[in-house]
């Protein structure tokens, strides 16, 4: 019994500390809290809910809330590192997000972007574009629970969107708990001569 205990203790003692500490290191880069996102995530059975301003001619009426239940897939993979202004060191995960209406399985949202980690400042960025000629950068403190908000100048859009459906604010709340990813987000729009809070909420599970 003592011999067995000694072997077990020895195996623990000789396990390199780097192995114990490097669970956030991928391809030689430390992704911090973002390391746990790598993989593919899909909606739980309940799916998510999108509330957006309805189009002209819709049953809801132009600018009224249009509620769309959806399901989605988000895939995160290692991208690269970068250094900004010789000072800020970053590592990035590339992600693609595809969202489908539950009612007919049609894709109604496609998003491509990067989750970026600044280890020195413990900051996370979500930098993404959607095929409406709109791109957003949101940032916040790193953690398993994060609130990422677009700063001044963090939104770029076409001249048409600026004049007709301008994004004036963006906030994303995200929580990572093991193999469960939960988020809610609000995109503030200046559309149809009024302000509208376009919201999305979803719960996903890691599938691989």
Could you explain how this protein is built, in words?
Helix content is 11%, strand content 59%. It has 208 residues and is mainly β. Strands 3, 4, 5, 6, 7, 8, 9, 10, 11, 12, 13 and 14 form a twelve-stranded antiparallel beta sheet that branches. It has a two-stranded antiparallel sheet with strand order 1-2.
Keywords:
mainly beta; 59% strand; 14 strands; 3 helices; two-stranded antiparallel ribbon; 208 residues; twelve-stranded antiparallel beta sheet; globular; disordered N terminus
- As residue ranges, the low-confidence spans are 1-21
Major beta-sheet overview: 12 strands, antiparallel
Q: Say how many strands there are.
A: 14
Radius of gyration: 21 Å
| Share of residues in helices | 10-25%
Structural class, please?
mainly beta
Which range does the strand content fall in? over 45%
Count, helices: 3
Global geometry: globular
Series of secondary-structure elements, N-terminal to C-terminal: HHEEEEEEEEEEEHEEE
Q: Whole-number average pLDDT? A: 91
Kindly, what is the distance between the CA atoms of the first and last residues, rounded to a whole number of angstroms?
40 Å
